Structure formats: structure tokens, C-alpha cells
């Protein structure tokens, strides 16, 4: 059979373009217009690049469509117009980037009063961003002539599309010299300072949030690009301003000046946290902290820390009196939460954890003087179900215990400047013991385990590890010895018994080793394998083995498994003749069960013609399955074991399956069952 293909098929768009008077709207109605455009359809591209078509496309993405249109189709054509303009076709890019009248029409979109339509703003940002990447020189030159460009963008910063546009200006300009010119231009326009001003408590929350996110992204982009550049270049002017003490101080002033709001505290703290970023955050950062200590810490610009230190008391006050946010009681799965922790206090906890990780002596001393850790521990035990907070407190404790030793090595005269308040004023050991005993009592009364017990276990382990082999173990030992005698005894008992048992349980593989027998079997049925639990455990250990560095090398088959033995393909079967099969079973009980529960197969049934029409009946299949199930139950119930050994012992059996052997061969022989006594060694 031959298939016929019409290889000269002309698209419907080509047919439309051949017609006189075709309009842009008619072409945009076609489903494959974008596909044809990206496929470089010459007729279509020439039509789209005409002046009146380009003007109409730009109008569609910059002007509100009529309000009387159906909502589903109202933004259909603006969306298609945006896709056509950003299809990355050279002819369209050249026309749009080289025609100043089109650029002026695009720019006019920014001159509207806020707020902008968010969808049209995204179309505008995408189109300008594509031009910045493809027609860089022309577009940057055009924008730099517009003295109010940055002001207009910041005026619409409540639209996230404007934030994206700023980031494209910073990250999408090539080559490097031109990018540096753009950065210097943005710095001359005081972009960073103006974004910082938008963080003032009196500003709109949406503007604050987008300004904060823009500053955070600029910090990360600038640092990433600085790390990627191999040649030595002049420093990034925007990053230099962001890290300057004057700008950080201005940011903190805007956060705390006037009435403090949760939005200003959260957004401002996010910028500070980004400036302090030194490693991966969260649990991965905690693992780095445990494994690397202070030696691998990122060196934070001292100007940032100098600007933050005078305001630590303001952050301390936020822990005591967070900004009032009108909230009603929250019903949770563990009860009613009258006063939530709040995002402001959580961000303060994150900031304290980041500051402690810098190992800055002055910062750590001020935190100790303010007794900030005591407040954080109070919140840790008060909000026992807020794991976000628990992680930050754990990071703080780990930083103090790990980093204080490093500071002592560099400043021998300042020993115990961090850990002493932690053990004495904060009463860390007593709090751990009291919380543990209270949780045990609560569980004994039928309550549930508290949500902070996992992090509390990790904190206790951190103390023990530093007590035993940390760099400051001698100082911590002295502090433990200074505890009251009863508390010291409770601690030693807790470490030696309770904590050790908890760690043992936590390291057990989370694999159930319960009886795997089917629920359909008898409850009194024994396992056919005497060591099935040990086998299950061994298999579980194999399945759950941790991925080590050489796991990939060890995974799979051994090459020796595929080597030829004695250069004979039958070598693998040569020793089968030496295998002896032994049945270790309770023969009498097994015979009784077979007679009671297993019926003999009827081998005398007449053969039927498979083509004869007959009624469908599943009884035979059910009967067969029933026999098989009964057979397997008998095997498992009476512990019938097959054992194989490569010794010289002959095969022996106490009975046959059908019944006891007939004496002297007298009586009828039951041929329905096999007799293992007749088995002989065989060779394949």
C-alpha cells in the first residue's frame, strides 16, 4: 500500500496573503500565525514589518482594549501581538529597534498614570526586554536620552513587570564594557537610593515589597556576575552602593522611622539578609555550619555590620513587641492560636542567626549584652509548633557553640564571651531537661509529642558534641560543672540514657519489619523461613543504604559475574548433580493437611473441542486458584523447607505427598502424586 503526500501544500496564511486587502486582524485569527512567523515565512514577515502593521502591533500591547469585549477574548490580540513582536525574528527586531517612532510609542506607555494594567505592563516589559537583549545599542541609547525613564519606571514599581525591566537592564546587556556603562548610568540616576527610599514605613506595601525584591535580586545578580568574570574589572557601582554603610543605615532608618509596620520590617530585613548571605540557607546551611565551622564563613563587608549594630536594640524590641497586625485567633490542628508568632519576629530570628554566623566579635557581644538568645529561647518553647522558628534558634545555638571556640583561639582573653550567657543566663541545659520531662509527662497522659522535640534533640546533640570533642570543650565542661548538683546529675542521666535511646531510634531505618503474611492466612500460621526477619532487615539495609561517594562505582554487576568459567558454557550447571534435596517437615501433619484440604486433580476429563460454542464458566479457574492457595497455605503452615547442599548426602524423604508408602508394593498405587523418594541425581 502506498501513501500519498501532498508535499506542495500551501498554508492558509499564504493564501490569505495572496488576497488583496487582507488585514492584520485576519492573519492573527489564524492558529498557526506564530508558528509561521517563527518558521521565517517570508511573505508573512514582509507583511508584518510594514509600517502600519508594526504600529498596530505596538498599539495592541500598549493601549487598553475596549471594555465591552468579552473577557475571554479581550486580551487575545494583545497577547498574540506581544508574541509576534518578541518572536526573536531578525526582521521584526530590526524594524522595531531601528524605528524611533515605534520606540516612542512604546515609551509613551510609561507616561500613563498608575496603576498600569498588569497584563499590558507584562507585554511592554517583555517587548522592551527582548529589544535590550537583541538591539542593545539602539535601545540603550534611546533610553538614556529619556531623563525621566528611571523615575517613570519607579513610579510604576507596584507592577512586578517594571521590576523585571530593571533587572533586564542590569543582567541582559552585553558586552561587558557596555554593561558597565549601563551600570554607571543607573548609578548616576541614583537607582539604589531611590529604591531604598521606597522602603519607608509610610509607603504602599506593594511598592515596598517590589522594591525590596528588586534590591535583593540586584545584590545576587551583581555578586554572581562578579564571580563569573574571569578578568579583573572595575567594581560594580550598584553593589558598592548597596553594601555601603550609608545606604544600609538609610534602609534601617526607613524601617524604624515613624510607625513600625510588619511590611516595612519584613521587606527591609529581607534586604539585610541578602546582604549577609554567606552560604545556603535552611537545613543545608546548618549542615555546612556543622561540618565547616567558622573557617569557611563568608567575609561580610564590615560596613554592613557597622550599620546594623546600633539598631540591634530596635530588633530586640520587635521580639518583645511586634508590630500590631489585626488578626483574629487562628484555629489549627493542634488547637487555637491566640497570638501568632508573626512574620516580623520570624525575620528578626533569621537576622540574628545570620549575624551570629558572621563571627563578628562586636555583633556577638552586643547580642549577648541584650540577652537576645534568652528571648529567642522563650519563643522557641512558647511556639512549639513553628518549625521555621525552631530552625533559626537551632542555627543560633550551633553558631554560638561552634564559633565561640574559633573566636577564643584568635582572642584568648575573651573566653566564654558567648557560651557563658547561653548556659548561665539562658539556662540552656535546664530548659532542655524541663521541656523533655514535660513532653514525656504530656505523652504519658495521652497527649501528642510536641512539635519542637526534633529540633530540641538536635540542639542537645550539638551541646554534647561540643562538650566531647569541640574546640571549646574545656570551656563548656567548666560551665557544665558550674551547674547545680541536681541539674548536673539530671543532665548526665539524660545524655547517657534518654538522649542516647532517642538517637538510636532516630537512626533506625524507617522500614517496617512487621509480619508480611497475607491477611487472608490463618493467624496461627508460622513463617516458612525461620530467619525471615533477619532476611527482611538485611534486604532493607541494602535498599536504604546511603549514597556514598563510591556508590556509583559499586552499583550494578561485577564484571567477574560475566566471565566464563572453565571456558565451558555448561560449567555453571556442572555441580547441579551434587545438589541434594532434603525435605525437613512434619510428615504426618503435612499428610493430614493434604488429605483434608487438597483434592486430587481429575486427569480423566475428556478433552473438549476448543472451537465448540459453550457457556462461559469461571468455576474451573476459581477451583484451580483455590487449590493453589490451599497448597501454598499448607506449605507455609507446616514449614516445608527445601534445602540444597553441595555435600555427598543422599536425598531422603520421610513420606510422599499422596500418603504413606504401600507395604511391599501391595495395593493400588496413587499416580496422582509424585514421590520424592524416586528422585535421582541428574545432570543437565
From TrEMBL:
InterPro entries: ARM-type_fold, SAPS. Residues 652-684 are annotated as: Disordered. It comes from the Eukaryota. GO terms for cellular component: cytosol; nucleus. GO terms for molecular function: protein phosphatase binding; protein phosphatase regulator activity. Coiled coil: none annotated. Signal peptide: none annotated. Belongs to the SAPS family. This is Protein phosphatase 6, regulatory subunit 2a. It comes from Cyprinus carpio. The lineage of its organism: Eukaryota, Metazoa, Chordata, Craniata, Vertebrata.
Amino acid at each position: 500500500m502506498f501513501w500519498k503526500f501532498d508535499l506542495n501544500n500551501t498554508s492558509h496564511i499564504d493564501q490569505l496573503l495572496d488576497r488583496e486587502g487582507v488585514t492584520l486582524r485576519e492573519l492573527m485569527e489564524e492558529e498557526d500565525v506564530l508558528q509561521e512567523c517563527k518558521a521565517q515565512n517570508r511573505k508573512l514577515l514582509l507583511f508584518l514589518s510594514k509600517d502600519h502593521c508594526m504600529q498596530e502591533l505596538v498599539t495592541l500591547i500598549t493601549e487598553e482594549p475596549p471594555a465591552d469585549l468579552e473577557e475571554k477574548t479581550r486580551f487575545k490580540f494583545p497577547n498574540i501581538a506581544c508574541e509576534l513582536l518578541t518572536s526573536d525574528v531578525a526582521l521584526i527586531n530590526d524594524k522595531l529597534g531601528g524605528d524611533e517612532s515605534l520606540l516612542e510609542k512604546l515609551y509613551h506607555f510609561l507616561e500613563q498614570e498608575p496603576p498600569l494594567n498588569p497584563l499590558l505592563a507584562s507585554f511592554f516589559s517583555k517587548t522592551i526586554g527582548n529589544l535590550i537583549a537583541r538591539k542593545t545599542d539602539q535601545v540603550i541609547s534611546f533610553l538614556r536620552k529619556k531623563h525621566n525613564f528611571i523615575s517613570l519606571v519607579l513610579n510604576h514599581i507596584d507592577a512586578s513587570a517594571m521590576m523585571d525591566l530593571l533587572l533586564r537592564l542590569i543582567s541582559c546587556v552585553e558586552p561587558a564594557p557596555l554593561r558597565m556603562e549601563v551600570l554607571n548610568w543607573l548609578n548616576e540616576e541614583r537607582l539604589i537610593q531611590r529604591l531604598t527610599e521606597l522602603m519607608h514605613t509610610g509607603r504602599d506595601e506593594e511598592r515596598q515589597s517590589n522594591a525590596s525584591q528588586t534590591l535583593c535580586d540586584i545584590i545576587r545578580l551583581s555578586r554572581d556576575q562578579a564571580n563569573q568574570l574571569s578578568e579583573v574589572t572595575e567594581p560594580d557601582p550598584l553593589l558598592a552602593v548597596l553594601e555601603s554603610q550609608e545606604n544600609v543605615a538609610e534602609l534601617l532608618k526607613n524601617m524604624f522611622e515613624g510607625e513600625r509596620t510588619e511590611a516595612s520590617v519584613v521587606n527591609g530585613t529581607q534586604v539585610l539578609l541578602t546582604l549577609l548571605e554567606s552560604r545556603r540557607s535552611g537545613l543545608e546551611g546548618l549542615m555546612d555550619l556543622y561540618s565547616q565551622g567558622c573557617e569557611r564563613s563568608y567575609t561580610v563587608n564590615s560596613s554592613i555590620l557597622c550599620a546594623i549594630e546600633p539598631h540591634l536594640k530596635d530588633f530586640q524590641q520587635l521580639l518583645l513587641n511586634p508590630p500590631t497586625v489585626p488578626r483574629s485567633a487562628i484555629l489549627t490542628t493542634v488547637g487555637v492560636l491566640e497570638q501568632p508568632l508573626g512574620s516580623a519576629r520570624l525575620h528578626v530570628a533569621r537576622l540574628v542567626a545570620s549575624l551570629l554566623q558572621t563571627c563578628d566579635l562586636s555583633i556577638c557581644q552586643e547580642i549577648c549584652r541584650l540577652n537576645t538568645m534568652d528571648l529567642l529561647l522563650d519563643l522557641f518553647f512558647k511556639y512549639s509548633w513553628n518549625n521555621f522558628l525552631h530552625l533559626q534558634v537551632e542555627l543560633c545555638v550551633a553558631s554560638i557553640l561552634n564559633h565561640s571556640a574559633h573566636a577564643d583561639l584568635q582572642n584568648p582573653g575573651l573566653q566564654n564571651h558567648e557560651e557563658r550567657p547561653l548556659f548561665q543566663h539562658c539556662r540552656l541545659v535546664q530548659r532542655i531537661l524541663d521541656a523533655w520531662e514535660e513532653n514525656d509527662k504530656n505523652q504519658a497522659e495521652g497527649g501528642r509529642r510536641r512539635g519542637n522535640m526534633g529540633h530540641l534533640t538536635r540542639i542537645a546533640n550539638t551541646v554534647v558534641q561540643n562538650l566531647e570533642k569541640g574546640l571549646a570543650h574545656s570551656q563548656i565542661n567548666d560551665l557544665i560543672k558550674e551547674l547545680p548538683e541536681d541539674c548536673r546529675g539530671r543532665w548526665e542521666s539524660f545524655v547517657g540514657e534518654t538522649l542516647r535511646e532517642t538517637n538510636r531510634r532516630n537512626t533506625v531505618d524507617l522500614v517496617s519489619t512487621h509480619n508480611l503474611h497475607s491477611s487472608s492466612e490463618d493467624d496461627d500460621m508460622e513463617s516458612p523461613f525461620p530467619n525471615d526477619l533477619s532476611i527482611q532487615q538485611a534486604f532493607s539495609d541494602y535498599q536504604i543504604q546511603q549514597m556514598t561517594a563510591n556508590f556509583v562505582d559499586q552499583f550494578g554487576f561485577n564484571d567477574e559475574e560475566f566471565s566464563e568459567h572453565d571456558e565451558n558454557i555448561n560449567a555453571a550447571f556442572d555441580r547441579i548433580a551434587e545438589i541434594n534435596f532434603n525435605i525437613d517437615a512434619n510428615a504426618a501433619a503435612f499428610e493430614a493437611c493434604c488429605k483434608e484440604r487438597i483434592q486430587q486433580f481429575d486427569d480423566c476429563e475428556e478433552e473438549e473441542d476448543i472451537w465448540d460454542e459453550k457457556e462461559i464458566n469461571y468455576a474451573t479457574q476459581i477451583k484451580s486458584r483455590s487449590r493453589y492457595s490451599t497448597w501454598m497455605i499448607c506449605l507455609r503452615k507446616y514449614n516445608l523447607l527445601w534445602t540444597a547442599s553441595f555435600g555427598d548426602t543422599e536425598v531422603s524423604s520421610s513420606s510422599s505427598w499422596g500418603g504413606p508408602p504401600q507395604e511391599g508394593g501391595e495395593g493400588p498405587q496413587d499416580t496422582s502424586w509424585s514421590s520424592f523418594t524416586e528422585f535421582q541425581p541428574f545432570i543437565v
